[in-house]
Design a protein that fits this description.
7-stranded antiparallel beta sheet; globular; 2 domains; single chain; alpha+beta; Rieske Iron-sulfur Protein; Naphthalene 1,2-dioxygenase Alpha Subunit, Chain A, domain 1
């Protein structure tokens, strides 16, 4: 299934940002749309599922869910890899959680698999032990970018570094590959995942929910966006008010480029990879949708390794994590309010302002994959 838009809806979405509209309410509220997003967005594109520093030694593993697909991320002798966490025998989860191991043993019938996913033994299974390949755990594509770990179920997806070649110059000075997770906090989010992504990608709301926290330092009117609608990424520059001193009391990242010491930068790579760079730290918003009306958000605070490993590193990470938690709690009503109202009979696609250009950019990418007219053209 793809999204069925009226001609007026399509025209409003495709109009230049100065006269464009948002997605129609049913793009958020209908479970059928989310089912289509699973296959056309999440299973077909790259999804950020971890950081490379979470896998230090051979045998370090973590299990993650990409919607309905459980995945094992594991460091092998040859490097980090991903594979299905479903036992090919009777579809039991081979393992859950995270830890350190030399092999994986399915708890149901004790079928044992190597770190490479090869079947080692199948007790009392007879000729099944001699089979090649069809009893192994299927491999899943994995790539790394800026210290982040990505997976996709699509064997033909463009390499993540190629797709983000235009974005990389925007964030080079922040040296994210050298950062480490210092603090994490998780929030249950009972609304559609796109509401958070859209709110994340505009500073216009600084004048509302963040009028006392962010607005004085990074005023909404100074913000501006850029991106690539075809590649599905956008960046939001949030410069400091030039009349104010820097609010940061932490060491600056040594590799910052000119101007990066006086701004915050929010970035999104669709479908749902979001993060913020600041002159001293970064924040990764890990969005894990489970339904059209629910997702889990984990906000990871990333610190430069020297700062995190300093005597005060843990307390700094917790303190900075507390600040971003407070900011997120200011954003909760900006997600919950529209979610409640989107189901109303008088709800409609709204107008975008120039300060919401990044939403327009990501909507074009979403439409290219979800609009029934685009699907019909691609099939011809």
């Amino acid at each position: 299934m793809v999204m069925k838009l009226t001609s007026n809806e399509r025209a409003g979405l495709r109009s230049p940002v100065s006269s464009a509209r948002t997605l129609p309410p049913r793009a958020y509220t209908e479970s059928e749309v989310f089912e289509a997003e699973k296959h056309r967005l999440f299973y077909s594109e790259w999804n950020c599922v971890g950081r490379i520093e979470q896998f230090q030694e051979v045998g370090d593993y973590r299990t993650v869910w990409l919607l309905d697909q459980p995945i094992i991320l594991v460091r092998r002798e040859t490097g980090l890899a991903a594979m299905s966490a479903i036992c090919p025998h009777r579809q039991m989860l081979v393992i859950e959680g995270d830890g350190q191991t030399g092999s994986f043993s399915c708890p149901y019938h004790l079928w044992k698999f190597s770190l490479e996913g090869k079947l080692i033994s199948a007790p009392l299974a007879g000729e099944h032990q001699a089979r090649d390949n069809d009893c192994d755990l299927p491999s899943i594509r994995l790539e790394q970018w800026q210290g982040f770990v990505f997976v996709t179920l699509n064997p033909d997806a463009e390499p993540i570094a190629t797709r983000l070649a235009g974005l990389t110059p925007h964030i080079e000075g922040y040296d994210m590959a050298a950062m480490r997770i210092g603090h994490s906090q998780t929030f249950d989010s009972p609304w559609n995942w796109k509401l958070l992504v859209e709110n994340f990608m505009e500073a216009y709301h600084h004048i509302g929910p963040h009028r006392e926290s962010i607005q004085p330092q990074q005023p909404a009117h100074l913000s501006f966006s850029s991106g690539d609608a075809l590649k599905g990424w956008a960046v939001l520059n949030m410069p400091d008010d030039p009349k104010r001193e820097s609010s940061s009391r932490l060491p600056l990242i040594p590799s910052l480029k000119e101007g990066q010491d006086r701004q915050a930068l929010a970035s999104v790579v669709l479908p749902a990879f979001c993060w913020i760079n600041t002159p001293s730290v970064a924040f990764w918003y890990q969005i894990e949708p489970s339904a059209h009306d629910a997702f889990t958000l984990t906000i990871h605070t990333l610190l430069p390794r020297p700062l995190l490993e300093s005597p005060d590193g843990a307390s700094v990470a917790a303190s900075v994590g507390g600040i971003i938690e407070a900011i997120h709690l200011e954003d909760v009503p900006a997600n919950a309010g529209p979610w409640q109202a989107l189901k109303a009979p008088f709800a409609q696609a709204g107008w975008l302002t120039p300060l919401e250009e990044a939403i327009w950019l990501v909507n074009q990418w979403w439409l290219d994959r979800m609009d029934d007219e685009c699907e019909a053209h691609s099939a011809n």
